[in-house]
Protein backbone atom coordinates (compact mmCIF):
# COMPACT_ATOMS: atom_id res chain seq x y z
CA UNK A 1 0.00 0.00 0.00
CA UNK A 2 1.38 3.40 -0.95
CA UNK A 3 -0.18 6.59 0.38
CA UNK A 4 0.69 10.16 -0.50
CA UNK A 5 1.25 12.20 2.70
CA UNK A 6 2.85 15.42 3.89
CA UNK A 7 5.66 15.33 6.46
CA UNK A 8 4.60 16.79 9.84
CA UNK A 9 8.02 18.40 10.36
CA UNK A 10 9.11 19.80 6.97
CA UNK A 11 5.79 19.73 5.08
CA UNK A 12 7.35 17.94 2.10
CA UNK A 13 5.09 15.48 0.24
CA UNK A 14 6.21 11.83 0.32
CA UNK A 15 4.89 8.32 -0.34
CA UNK A 16 4.14 6.40 2.89
CA UNK A 17 3.90 2.64 3.10
CA UNK A 18 1.75 2.70 6.23
CA UNK A 19 -1.18 4.78 7.43
CA UNK A 20 0.65 5.72 10.64
CA UNK A 21 3.78 7.15 8.97
CA UNK A 22 4.13 10.86 9.81
CA UNK A 23 7.62 11.81 8.61
CA UNK A 24 9.34 11.73 5.24
CA UNK A 25 12.68 10.62 6.74
CA UNK A 26 14.30 9.54 10.00
CA UNK A 27 16.03 12.94 10.19
CA UNK A 28 12.68 14.78 10.24
CA UNK A 29 11.45 12.37 12.90
CA UNK A 30 14.51 13.02 15.11
CA UNK A 31 14.35 16.79 14.70
CA UNK A 32 10.64 16.92 15.48
CA UNK A 33 11.17 14.65 18.49
CA UNK A 34 13.72 17.11 19.93
CA UNK A 35 11.28 19.99 19.48
CA UNK A 36 8.51 18.00 21.16
CA UNK A 37 10.79 17.28 24.14
CA UNK A 38 11.53 21.00 24.50
CA UNK A 39 7.81 21.81 24.41
CA UNK A 40 7.06 19.08 26.96
CA UNK A 41 4.79 16.96 24.76
CA UNK A 42 6.82 13.78 25.27
CA UNK A 43 6.80 13.96 29.06
CA UNK A 44 3.00 14.41 29.00
CA UNK A 45 2.52 11.25 26.98
CA UNK A 46 4.86 9.38 29.34
CA UNK A 47 2.84 10.64 32.34
CA UNK A 48 -0.39 9.52 30.66
CA UNK A 49 1.14 6.09 30.04
CA UNK A 50 2.20 5.87 33.69
CA UNK A 51 -1.34 6.82 34.85
CA UNK A 52 -2.83 4.11 32.64
CA UNK A 53 -0.43 1.51 34.04
CA UNK A 54 -1.30 2.53 37.62
CA UNK A 55 -5.01 2.31 36.79
CA UNK A 56 -4.60 -1.21 35.40
CA UNK A 57 -2.56 -2.25 38.45
CA UNK A 58 -5.22 -0.85 40.80
CA UNK A 59 -7.98 -2.62 38.85
CA UNK A 60 -6.06 -5.92 38.98
CA UNK A 61 -5.44 -5.49 42.72
CA UNK A 62 -9.15 -4.93 43.36
CA UNK A 63 -10.08 -7.88 41.16
CA UNK A 64 -7.73 -10.21 43.04
CA UNK A 65 -9.07 -9.16 46.44
CA UNK A 66 -12.82 -9.19 45.77
CA UNK A 67 -14.88 -11.99 47.30
CA UNK A 68 -17.71 -11.73 44.74
CA UNK A 69 -17.22 -11.19 41.02
CA UNK A 70 -19.41 -10.26 38.07
CA UNK A 71 -19.36 -12.21 34.80
CA UNK A 72 -17.03 -9.62 33.24
CA UNK A 73 -14.62 -9.75 36.19
CA UNK A 74 -14.66 -13.55 36.12
CA UNK A 75 -13.76 -13.45 32.42
CA UNK A 76 -10.83 -11.13 33.15
CA UNK A 77 -9.67 -13.21 36.12
CA UNK A 78 -9.76 -16.56 34.31
CA UNK A 79 -8.94 -15.31 30.82
CA UNK A 80 -12.04 -16.97 29.40
CA UNK A 81 -14.74 -15.64 27.10
CA UNK A 82 -18.26 -14.73 28.26
CA UNK A 83 -19.72 -17.63 26.31
CA UNK A 84 -17.41 -20.09 28.09
CA UNK A 85 -18.42 -18.70 31.50
CA UNK A 86 -22.11 -18.94 30.59
CA UNK A 87 -21.59 -22.51 29.34
CA UNK A 88 -19.95 -23.45 32.66
CA UNK A 89 -22.93 -21.93 34.48
CA UNK A 90 -25.44 -23.75 32.24
CA UNK A 91 -23.63 -27.08 32.75
CA UNK A 92 -23.73 -26.36 36.52
CA UNK A 93 -19.93 -26.56 36.78
CA UNK A 94 -19.82 -23.02 38.15
CA UNK A 95 -22.20 -21.97 40.92
CA UNK A 96 -23.74 -18.51 40.75
CA UNK A 97 -25.98 -16.25 42.80
CA UNK A 98 -28.65 -14.26 40.96
CA UNK A 99 -29.79 -10.95 42.37
CA UNK A 100 -32.43 -9.63 40.02
CA UNK A 101 -30.90 -9.68 36.56
CA UNK A 102 -27.38 -9.56 37.95
CA UNK A 103 -25.21 -12.67 38.29
CA UNK A 104 -22.64 -12.82 41.07
CA UNK A 105 -19.98 -15.50 41.40
CA UNK A 106 -18.21 -16.31 44.66
CA UNK A 107 -14.42 -16.51 44.36
CA UNK A 108 -14.46 -19.74 46.39
CA UNK A 109 -16.80 -21.32 43.79
CA UNK A 110 -14.34 -20.40 41.04
CA UNK A 111 -11.48 -21.97 42.98
CA UNK A 112 -13.57 -25.12 43.62
CA UNK A 113 -14.39 -25.42 39.93
CA UNK A 114 -10.72 -25.10 38.98
CA UNK A 115 -9.70 -27.73 41.55
CA UNK A 116 -12.36 -30.16 40.31
CA UNK A 117 -11.31 -29.71 36.66
CA UNK A 118 -7.57 -30.00 37.25
CA UNK A 119 -7.76 -33.74 37.96
CA UNK A 120 -7.88 -35.94 34.90
CA UNK A 121 -8.52 -39.66 34.87
CA UNK A 122 -5.78 -41.79 33.32
CA UNK A 123 -6.85 -45.36 32.47
CA UNK A 124 -5.00 -48.21 34.19
CA UNK A 125 -3.99 -49.66 30.81
CA UNK A 126 -2.09 -46.46 29.96
CA UNK A 127 -0.41 -46.45 33.38
CA UNK A 128 0.68 -50.10 32.92
CA UNK A 129 2.10 -49.47 29.46
CA UNK A 130 4.04 -46.41 30.61
CA UNK A 131 5.29 -48.16 33.77
CA UNK A 132 6.50 -51.19 31.81
CA UNK A 133 7.70 -49.26 28.78
CA UNK A 134 11.10 -50.42 27.56
CA UNK A 135 12.22 -48.65 24.42
CA UNK A 136 14.21 -51.71 23.32
CA UNK A 137 10.95 -53.65 22.84
CA UNK A 138 9.42 -50.98 20.57
CA UNK A 139 9.94 -49.57 17.10
CA UNK A 140 9.49 -45.89 16.46
CA UNK A 141 7.19 -45.29 13.45
CA UNK A 142 10.08 -43.76 11.48
CA UNK A 143 12.19 -46.87 12.11
CA UNK A 144 9.45 -49.13 10.74
CA UNK A 145 9.13 -47.01 7.60
CA UNK A 146 12.90 -47.16 7.02
CA UNK A 147 13.32 -50.87 7.84
CA UNK A 148 10.40 -52.18 5.79
CA UNK A 149 10.20 -49.54 3.05
CA UNK A 150 6.52 -48.95 3.68
CA UNK A 151 4.75 -45.59 3.45
CA UNK A 152 3.50 -43.91 6.60
CA UNK A 153 -0.10 -43.98 5.39
CA UNK A 154 0.17 -47.69 4.51
CA UNK A 155 1.69 -48.48 7.90
CA UNK A 156 -1.04 -46.66 9.82
CA UNK A 157 -3.79 -48.37 7.81
CA UNK A 158 -2.19 -51.78 8.58
CA UNK A 159 -2.01 -50.94 12.28
CA UNK A 160 -5.64 -49.84 12.35
CA UNK A 161 -6.93 -52.81 10.34
CA UNK A 162 -5.11 -55.33 12.57
CA UNK A 163 -5.99 -53.48 15.79
CA UNK A 164 -2.35 -53.10 16.79
CA UNK A 165 -1.80 -51.03 19.96
CA UNK A 166 0.32 -47.92 19.62
CA UNK A 167 2.04 -46.07 22.46
CA UNK A 168 2.14 -42.28 22.20
CA UNK A 169 4.85 -40.62 24.27
CA UNK A 170 5.08 -36.92 23.58
CA UNK A 171 5.00 -36.48 19.81
CA UNK A 172 6.46 -39.93 19.13
CA UNK A 173 4.47 -43.09 18.38
CA UNK A 174 5.86 -46.53 19.21
CA UNK A 175 4.69 -50.05 18.30
CA UNK A 176 5.82 -53.34 19.84
CA UNK A 177 8.49 -55.09 17.76
CA UNK A 178 6.68 -58.41 18.13
CA UNK A 179 3.48 -56.95 16.64
CA UNK A 180 5.38 -55.52 13.66
CA UNK A 181 7.22 -58.81 13.08
CA UNK A 182 3.87 -60.66 13.04
CA UNK A 183 2.49 -58.20 10.48
CA UNK A 184 5.49 -57.56 8.23
CA UNK A 185 8.02 -60.31 9.05
CA UNK A 186 11.63 -59.88 10.17
CA UNK A 187 13.42 -56.85 8.73
CA UNK A 188 16.58 -58.98 8.23
CA UNK A 189 14.76 -61.18 5.70
CA UNK A 190 13.99 -58.23 3.40
Automatic annotation (TrEMBL):
Signal peptide start-end: none
MF (Gene Ontology): DNA binding
Species of the source: Lutibacter oceani
Pfam families from the UniProt entry: HTH_17
Chain ranges of the Helix-turn-helix domain: 69-117
Top-level taxon in the UniProt lineage: Bacteria
This protein's name: AlpA family transcriptional regulator
Amino acid sequence: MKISKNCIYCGKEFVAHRLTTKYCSPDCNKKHYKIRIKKGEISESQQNEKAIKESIYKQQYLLNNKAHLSIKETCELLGLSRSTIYRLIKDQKLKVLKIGARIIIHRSDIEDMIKSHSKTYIPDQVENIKANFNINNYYYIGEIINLYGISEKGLYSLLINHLVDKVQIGSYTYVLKTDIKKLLGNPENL
